[in-house]
Design brief:
alpha/beta; Rossmann fold; 14% strand; single chain; Arc Repressor Mutant, subunit A; 2 domains; 6-stranded parallel beta sheet; 211 residues
């Protein structure tokens, strides 16, 4: 069970996310902070795995000492995204993200992974120096590299299609090409191979899956 501290001053967002969390067996909101003062106190006393941080963005570094931090912000500015990630946040999503995307982000950062939406990925790679898929898999086309990066982050076919603005059928075609070119026997094995190359901590599998 992933224990969550939810820090946000917007009741509608808090209530909505809590409602979705109650429907999932693997997540639990154990504490809620509506102000920075409450957040500071809970960071000292609450035992949690993930801090969903919508307030007190200046507290990212402190929050990241004992838990994975997922920043939820209205800002899509490059400097804000990179500042949060550089301070220790493991994930960054905007307030426009859907609840399922936020729940996925929580699961990814709880398992030690990094999560940003696809449109923000270039900012993180370019400014923080994360390893690039194209450096290790030059045999893939740019779009196949995009798909593989999302597979590494445990994105499903529908989520990949939505992030990249392509059809589900096109995603499946790209995945098939990736499996042939790596080579890999399954999408899980392809993601595992990419994690090994990129030295990304696995978020689901610790060894290649056999289809």
């Amino acid at each position: 069970m992933t224990r969550i501290l939810l820090a946000d001053s917007q009741p509608v967002f808090v209530d909505g996310l809590c409602t979705h969390v109650t429907r999932t067996p693997d997540l639990d909101v154990v504490a809620v902070a509506g102000t920075q003062a409450e957040l500071i106190e809970l960071l000292r006393t609450a035992v949690v795995d993930v801090v969903v941080l919508g307030i007190g963005l200046n507290l990212v570094e402190g929050a990241a000492e004992n838990a994975a931090v997922l920043v939820v912000s209205a800002s899509t500015r490059e400097e804000d995204v990179t500042a949060a990630m550089s301070a220790g946040a493991a994930g960054y999503v905007t307030r426009q993200a859907g609840p399922e995307d936020i729940l996925t982000a929580i699961r990814v950062v709880a398992r030690g992974g990094l999560f940003v939406t696809a449109d923000m990925a270039p900012l993180v790679r370019n400014r923080i120096g994360a390893a690039r898929v194209d450096s290790f898999f030059p045999q893939l086309t740019p779009r196949e590299q995009d798909v593989l990066e999302l597979l590494v982050r445990d994105a499903g076919t529908t989520a990949i299609a939505r992030h990249l603005g392509i059809t589900v059928k096109t995603v499946r075609n790209h995945v098939s090409n990736i499996l042939v070119k790596l080579p890999a026997r399954s999408r899980a094995e392809a993601a595992w191979l990419a994690r090994e190359k990129l030295r990304v901590r696995p978020s689901a599998h610790t060894e290649p899956a056999v289809s």
